[in-house]
Amino acid sequence: MSSKKTEPNSGPSRLPSSVSRLTPSLVPVILAGGSGTRLWPLSRQLYPKQFLALVGRETMLQDTVRRLAGLAGVGAPLVVCNDEHRFLAADQLREIHAGGTVVLEPVGRNTAPAVAVAALEAMADGSDPLLLVLPADHVIRDAASFRAAVAQGVPLAEAGSLITFGIVPTHAETGYGYIARGKKFNEAKTVYRVERFVEKPDRPTAEEYVSSGAYFWNSGMFLFRASVYLEELERFAPEMAAAARRAHAGRSADLGFVRLDAEAFAASPADSIDYAVMEKTERAAVVPLDCGWSDVGSWSALLEVAEADQDGNVLSGNVLGRELANCYVNAGHRMVAALGVRDLVVVETADAVLVAGRHRAQDVKLLVDALKREDRSETVHHRKVLRPWGSYETVDLAERFQVKRIVVKPGARLSSQLHHHRAEHWIVVRGTARVLNGDQEIILSENQSTYIPLGTMHRLENPGRIPLELIEVQSGSYLGEDDIVRFDDVYGRADGGQ
Q1: What is the pLDDT of residues 31-42, one digit of tens each?
Q2: Half-sphere exposure of 116 (CA within 13 A, CB side)
Q3: Which segments of the chain have a pLDDT < 70?
Q4: Chain centroid to CA 267: how far?
Q5: Are strands 139-140 and 293-294 parallel, antiparallel or unpaired?
Q6: Distance CA 27, CA 129 (A)
Q7: pLDDT tens by residue, 280-305
C-alpha cells in the first residue's frame, strides 16, 4: 500500500474525470446560502437544512446535484454558499464525486447578487453558458419530469428568454408566491409568457388562483443565458450589477474555493431574482412543472413529502408510537414515545426538543428569533460541531471544566495553537495521534494520553488510515471557543474555534 500522506480537505476539484473537458452548455448554479430556521432544531446556523438528509439517505444539496444526471450538456455544479459552510459544501460534493466550484459569499445579499457573481464565474473562461439556477433545499420526487421541463426551456433560454419554472399547484397554498401565465410562446410547446408575479395570497385568493388554472406556484428555479441575466440586471439594478462585478474582479483562490472581494460584495443591495429582474423584464417565460415539488419550508411540509404510514404519520429514528394520526416524530438521539396524539410535530436532538402543532409549524421561526434574542447557542450549532478536520462534541460542561469527544479524519490535522485560560488533557481511545506539545513531538496510540499546560503551543494530527478518536478534558477559568491563538492553519481560518 502507498505511504503517501492524505492532504487536508479543501474545495472540490474543479474538473473531475467524470466531467467532460468540453465547455458545458448548461451550468447548474446551486444556491446553498439559506438558513432554514423553520426546520429548527435540526437546521441550525452552522448546519442549515440544505446540508441535512431530511428525505432519503443523501443530503438535500446532494439530491439537487444527483437529479441533474441525464441533462444534455450539463457541466459540474457551481455552488454559491456562505463562507462558514464552505467545508460542508465541499465535503458533500466530494462524497458524490460531483466536482464543481464553490463560490463563497462573505455576507448574505439574497439571490440576485449571488446569481450575478455565479454568472461572472461561469463566463470567466470566455464562454457564455446557460445557467440552471436551483435552490439547494428543494424536494423533487419526479426527477424525470424536472429534467423534461428543463429540456423544454432550453431553446427559449438560448434565444434570450429568462425562464422560470412554475409548479402546477395541487391545492390552495398561502405560503407560496404565484406566477400568472400569459399567452403561449407557440402552440407546439406548453411554455407561456409571464403575465405577472403575485405575492403570497390569502386563502380565498389562493383558491381562486388554483381554480382558474392560470396560476403556478413560484418555485424559485430559473434558466437563462449568463450574459442575458447580467444585461437585465444592469438594466434594472445597475448598482447591484456593478457591485457584483467588483466583487468578482477582486476574487481570490483559497484552498480550491472562489473567495469574493468582501467589501465590494457587502456594498451590493440585497434583493431576490424575482424583485430585481424577473418582475421587471419583458423577456420572462414560465415552463409548467409537475414533479412532486416542495421547498420544505416547514416541518408540516416535510410531513407531506416524506413517506407516511397508513395513519398519515412520519416516524424517524427510535420512535415508539401508538394511536397517532398525522404526526411527524423525529428522534435523533433518545427514544421518543408518543401516545394518543394527532397533528403534532416532535423533533428531538441532543440538546433541544421541539413540540409543535402541525398547523403552527410555519411559526417555528418565532421560537428561533426568541432564542437568538437570548443569545442561546442552540440556534447556532448542534452539540456535535463539524470542522474541516472532523468534529467535536461536548460530553459534559461545568463552571471550570469541559469534556469533549474529538474525531479527526485520516490525514487531517488541527491548527498549531495555544490557549490563555485553559489546560487540556488528551486521551486516545481509537487510532493514532501525532501530537506537538511545546517543543516535543510524540505519537500516541489507544489508551495513551498527554497533558498540555496552559499557554503551551500544541497541535493534533491523525497520521493514520482510520479516524482518530480522543477524549479531551479542559480545565481553566474560561472555556470559550474564542480562547485560541493560531500560528498556522491548513484551512485558512482566523482565530476562534477549534
Answers
A1: 999 888 899 999
A2: 35
A3: 1-24, 187-189, 493-498
A4: 24
A5: antiparallel
A6: 6
A7: 999 999 999 999 999 998 998 888 88
